[in-house]
Amino acid sequence: MQQINHPPAGLETDLHPALDEHESSVESDRCYFCYDAPCVTACPTGIDIPLFIRQIQTGNRTGAAKTIFDENILGGMCARVCPTETLCEQACVREAAESQPVKIGRLQRFATDSFLGEAVHPYQRASDSGKRVCVVGAGPAGLACAHRLAIYGHQVALLDAGDKPGGLNEYGIAAYKTVDDFAQKEVEFILSVGGISLQKGVHVGSDVSFKELLEQYDAIFLGIGLGDVNQVALEGSNLAGVSNAVEFIANLRQSDDYTGVLPGRRVVVIGGGMTAIDAAVQARMLGAEEVTIAYRRGVESMNASRYEQELAQINGVKIRHNVQPVEFHNDGTGQIDSVELEHTITEAGELRATGEKFVVEADSVLLAIGQSLQEQLLADTAIELKGNRIVVDEGYRTGHPNIWAGGDCISGGEDLTVAAVQDGKLAAESIHLALSAQ
Fold it and tell me: What CATH number was assigned to the domain covering residues 9-116?
């Protein structure tokens, strides 16, 4: 196995480099500034996209950033990781007319990056409301909720189990999508509004109970994400070299010495979502010679967008559709050496195995087959769950009158940073309304 103790070039290079002044001016001129802009409807946070692009066009970069932050305080990260190709840019009129949408995501980054280094925060807190809110989880939903509540004058305690805040923005997104420690810079920007006390390394349920939190705070928001990783019950799944892709990405993001996270020469990734793509591409960037994604359904069913699938293929990843693992083979020493796969077919909406099997050699296998809620965290809350997700009403309130939730952990929640931000923002509005009525 080759030795790498410095970041490979691909891991240090932005997937979508920042536009410079001239490029942003040229790109903003391409916008039609539609009156009934379909790009705004396609944005989960409802950013006034034509307005911020016009502000860039007229040289008002700060105003453009403020327009974005008004709806999405994590607009900088979303500019980097949002699947704009299936959201705002897919809805762009220029995409329909000439298959060349305005580069909305990169224009958003141009605007927001200019503000993160500013000494003055674009928002000022209202006078102290006397209310205290606990936000559990410092991921996108929790950060968005905490920031909006702080603006309204509430005191916010932001609890997170990790060593660093940011949630999936820090631990779960490919290194090549967010370089230069951007996740932490954005967190610092958000917290600089004031009124938010960050407490790291706090595990709710063991270090502090929900009963204690309910006694101390007027409201609680849960942005706890999906902390458990789904496993496969197959022969050989406990072999050395079989691990989960989420952990691989997290270790890579936190590592200064890449020798500790090398995946091997031949890597098989099981799954078809964004995590599978991120893990596979990063494995190639780390020097793996053969990387194969094995997905049990067809290309049309993959959660990863066509753009992301093409990105993987451009980077030398082979994607095999309609195949599923049936066994992981041992090399005789307890180490994985190959994966046995079986072809599948979908008939009348049902997936079934065909019986055709083949073997792919592998030094390591990365499982990217989804995550689930750590239900034990909610054991003493009597919060209703549906399909391993928290049930909330239209105001993101759970069945408990003083507990709200948002992000991946809720029923119907989308696995998107931008969707989690919207959940946190709207939950904060609901919490503020409830506290104001007390």
Answer: 1.10.1060.10
